[in-house]
Specification:
Layout (H helix, E strand, L loop, with lengths): L2 H22 L3 H21 L5 H19 L5 H22 L6 H22 L6 H22 L3 H23 L3 H21 L6
Helix pairs in contact: 1-2, 1-8, 2-3, 2-8, 3-4, 3-8, 4-6, 5-6, 6-7, 7-8
């Protein structure tokens, strides 16, 4: 891992922390700026380390869709939030396509699939009373995408990719709780670090996917 990648990783985490502080103070403009810098940092790692691999192209696409989703989720308007869900749905799909380019371990896939189907069933039962209109369909589709992404990540048998996928999925729970159940700074305190560490791990996996 070169020095530039390390510096960008530190920058990403520093501005992610700054994003939490800006949110605590209720400064929307600063929330937007810190999020853009943090997300641009992980995207830059992907761009700078992109080789000619099919996997790398899919991960870079996922990072780009995540960047778009990050910006859209700054605002709490319904249209922006639905746009953010769509962007992250595409990110999960791109990651899943990237993972599918690896040698497939059926046993790991089945175990992960069973675990995440159970988790998703509980999550949907928890969220359902708080959902209405298009959000019910959006969340169902999104949960299916998460399940596929995490299961395919496990099937790569790469600890780096598997951990990153799990962290990304868990961070989405914080977003869902904040938007549909109870908005609080606490959701961001644990959700944002998980999310940005996951994206950094994905970006680094372009360099050494088998870790």
């Amino acid at each position: 891992m070169d020095q530039t990648t390390i510096i960008l990783g530190i920058l990403c985490l520093a501005f992610a922390a700054g994003n939490i502080l800006a949110d605590r103070k209720g400064k929307t403009d600063l929330v937007l700026v810190t999020k853009i810098v943090a997300s641009t940092s992980f995207l830059a790692i992907g761009i700078l380390n992109l080789g000619g691999s099919k996997y790398g192209v899919f991960v870079l696409a996922a990072l780009a869709f995540s960047w778009i989703g990050d910006v859209l989720l700054v605002w709490r308007r319904k249209t922006f939030f639905l746009g953010g869900i769509a962007a992250f749905l595409l990110a999960h799909a791109a990651y899943a396509c990237g993972f599918a380019s690896f040698k497939f371990d059926l046993s790991a896939f089945v175990v992960a699939l069973v675990i995440w189907v159970i988790v998703v069933i509980f999550l949907i039962r928890w969220l359902w009373p708080h959902l209405n209109g298009p959000f019910r369909y959006a969340v169902l589709i999104y949960m299916a995408a998460i399940t596929a992404m995490v299961s395919l990540a496990a099937a790569t048998t790469s600890p780096l990719i598997t951990v990153a996928a799990g962290m990304f999925a868990i961070s989405d729970i914080a977003v869902a709780r904040d938007r549909f159940v109870a908005s609080s700074l606490g959701n961001r305190i644990w959700g944002i670090p998980l999310y940005y560490i996951a994206q950094l791990l994905f970006a680094i996996s372009i360099i050494q996917p088998a870790l």
